[in-house]
Structures are given as structure tokens and as C-alpha cells.
Amino acid sequence: SDTARQRLVSSLRGRLRRWVALRLALLVRSVDEEVQRRALPTFANQPRNLRLESPHRIVNAAAITIGDDVSLGPGCLLNAIRRYPGPFMAGAPDVKPQTFEPSIRIGNRVSATGYLTVGAVDSVVIEDDVLLASHIYIGDNLHGTERADVPYKYQPLGRIAPVVIGRGSWIGEHVVILPGVEIGDFSVVGANSVVTASIPPRSIAVGSPARVVRRWSEEQSQWVRAED
Predict the structure, then answer these.
(1) Sheet holding 103-106, edge to edge
(2) What span, in angstroms and rounded, lies between the C-alpha atoms of 124 and 122?
(3) With bands split at pLDDT 50, 70 and 90, how would you rate the model's confidence at 14?
(4) How far is CA 98 from CA 78, 82, 134, 184, in A?
């Protein structure tokens, strides 16, 4: 009947519209991914499925290795420092240049909410599956303070020591991690903490300077107070 024929035509038209819309969506997604891929810096490797939101700043990408399935939110700075002072300090007072061979290594499935700053003149390693909240600073060096009559930004970088954040750890909002710190696997650092010393695996640390307040008890299968 005419009614059945009209219903069939209407159904076919609906399917065709949905098919066209799906193909267009897939095409747009493919183009977006290709544009993003071409816009990425030339890292030391070729990470797969990297989400690097804008704005971001990457310095000396050839010294930076990033794992697969990594997501870095907006405002991130990855700074592999080869020379100090840099060009931005041209015309500074008599400053003896320093040269470095830095390395920043970010593992697989690491995620950062945003505004992550990593500065390395030696080595900063963030292992697999680390969760980073926003406004975190991680550095393996500090500005020099050997003199009190020269602006600190013109003094040599010092206290240089590698930093390692163990796999599966969670670093809270506004945390500062200083040179020489190693955070053990599956540890938690609470918001607003300043980490000046290493933290054992499976620990919870808070404060400024950060101290361990909880540890994981294998016997009890739960967190217990650190002094227990």
C-alpha cells in the first residue's frame, strides 16, 4: 500500500541521515586528531594517544619522553633546561653560564588536571599511572642563594638531585616537590604539601614540610596511623 511504501521511504531516509551524520562526525574527529598530532612538539619518542591541552609550553622537547595514553590539562610547562641563564635573561649582570643534559620521563597513563610545572636540569621521572591534580610544581633544582647581594635569579642553579614519583601515586592540589625527593609507589601526597624528603611506598603524607601520617598495613588491609 501507499502507506507502507511511505513508511519504508521515511525509514530509509532516516537511516541515511544517521549514517551521513555518523560519517561526518568520524571525519571531523579524524581531522581534529591529525591536526593535534601535527601540532605536537618533537619529543624524544612518539607517544600514542597523547592529550596535551592548550595553552601549554614545552621547552627542549627532544629531552622529554612521554608514555602512551597520557593526558595533560591546560597550562602545563615541561621545561628541560639545557642552559642557564636562558635567552630570556639576556643582558643580565655577570652570570657564569651553566650547561646541563636534562631528562624528563613521563610514564604511561599519567594524567594531570592542569597547570603542572616540571623543571629538570638532571632528571625528573613520573612513573606509570600517576594522578596529578592541578597547580603542582616538580623540580630537581633550586635557584642559588650563596650571596645576598646578587638577585637570586642571576645566581647558579644548585641543590641538583633527581626526582622520582612512583607508579600509581596521587599528588594533590598545589603540591611542591623539591630536589632529591623519591615518592614511593602507590603513595598519596595531600593538597598544599611541600615535599622536602622522600616518602616510602604506600604512605600518605601531608604538610609543609610533608610528613607521613598514614601507612598501608598489609596485615590489616587498611590505612593505619604512621606511628602504629
Answers:
(1) 64-66, 103-106, 123-126, 163-165, 182-183
(2) 7
(3) confident
(4) 19, 8, 31, 31
User: What is the spatial distance between Cα 76 and Cα 61, in angstroms, rounded to a whole number?
Assistant: 13
Cα separation, 104 vs 124, in Å, equals: 5
Q: Which residue has the cell 500500500?
A: 1
Q: In which element (H, E) is residue 29 found?
A: helix 2-39
Q: Report d(CA 19, CA 37) in Å as an integer.
A: 27
Known catalytic residues?
143
Q: What pTM value is reported for the model?
A: 0.82
Q: pLDDT tens for residues 91-107?
A: 666 778 899 999 999 99
Closest CA to 82 of 105, 63, 108, 54: 63
* Residue 64 backbone dihedrals phi, psi, to 5 degrees: -120, 130
**Contact criterion met (CB below 8 Å) for 179 and 141:** yes
**Alpha carbon distance 51, 44 (integer Å):** 17
The DSSP-derived string for 39-80 is: HS---SS--SS-EEPSSEEEESGGGEEE-SS-EE-TTEEEEE
Peptide bond into 87 cis (omega under 30): no
User: Which amino acid is located at 76 in the chain?
Assistant: C
Q: Give first-to-last CA distance, the chain, whole Å.
A: 83
Contact between residue 223 and residue 204 where contact means Cβ atoms under 8 Å apart: yes
Q: What is the spatial distance between Cα 219 and Cα 228, in angstroms, rounded to a whole number?
A: 12
